[in-house]
Amino acid sequence: MGVAATSTDGGVAGVTTKPALEVRHITKRYGGLTAVSDVSLRVDPGEVCGFIGPNGAGKTTLFDIISGLTPPTSGTVRLDGVDVTRQLPERRTRSGVRRTFQRAQLYSRLSVEDNVLAAMEWRGGGGGLLADLFATPGRRRREAERREHALSVLTACGLADLRHKPAGSLPIGQARLVELARAIADQPRLLLLDEPTSGLSAHETELFGEQIQRLRTTGVAVVLVEHDVGFVMGQSDRVVVLNLGSVLAEGTPDEIQAHPAVRAAYLG
Questions:
Q1: What range(s) does the ABC transporter domain occupy (predicted)?
Q2: pLDDT tens-digit readout, 176-217
Q3: Most exposed among 35, 156, 193, 257, judged by the fewest C-beta atoms under 10 Å?
């Protein structure tokens, strides 16, 4: 599948932008099983691209390949034009790739606030070990700034009142919002969301959607895997339909909903 270099709401009409994500001819085989077969796509900065398809279509496997958790059998992954196919997940994370998972993966014994702060720890606190040991003014100032930023992210996600609660004590809907807050606390370039609305209430789903749309206005590329077709159609600029590891169709939400093969295989 090839995706034309068209402008999105996050770009300038008539101007070709370097894709935030470009996947070229990705195939993943496990022995005799082909989980992903010759998939190519691009996602531009500020674009929301939704993936739909039945269970076993290859959506999560493709996410694992993009985020570096699983190497492809063949094909390449490029981030901002750079080939990262053989880069470790940590390297991709520092390049701006963030991800949530089908099952929320939080530091259950840490507070909600500390889960979000953990996303920024890799940048260091400033001043090195001595600054940490003696709590220098610069170190205290940076820590205060990070906590203020974490609080603003939690507030946007409707979690400010829960910031001191252990993350492991939260119901699934709130846990997913914490995972989102952690993913966006350190500004991403590419955000991969795997079944994010599973277990969310209508209000929580609305909050999640508001954050997706806010992120796109800042130039973040968002790739969304979701079984809630209505949510995908409402959030996405473009929708890709996977079936048995291959691309069945792609297009705007209206085009996908009217596509005969998609209706027969998936939408009904």
A1: 21-267
A2: 999 999 999 988 999 999 999 988 999 999 999 999 999 999
A3: 257
| Domain 1-96+187-268 = CATH 3.30.70.3460 | no
Distance CA 1, CA 19 (A): 16
Single out the residue of 111, 124, 176, 189 nearest to residue 150, CA to CA.
111
Angle subtended by helix axes 202-217 and 172-185, to nearest 10: 10
Tell me the C-alpha to C-alpha distance, in Å, between residue 237 and each of 139, 212, 216, 231, 261: 42, 12, 11, 12, 20
Contact 111, 206 (CB under 8 A): no
* Residue 114: half-sphere exposure toward Cβ, Cα within 13 Å: 10
Tracing tokens 């195939």 back to the chain, one arrives at 27
Residue 161 makes CB contacts below 8 A (sequence gap 6+) with none
CB neighbour class for 61 (10 Å; exposed up to 12, middle 13-18, buried from 19): buried
Separation CA 34–CA 217 (nearest Å): 37
Distance CA 50, CA 92 (A): 21
How much is the mean pLDDT over the chain? 87
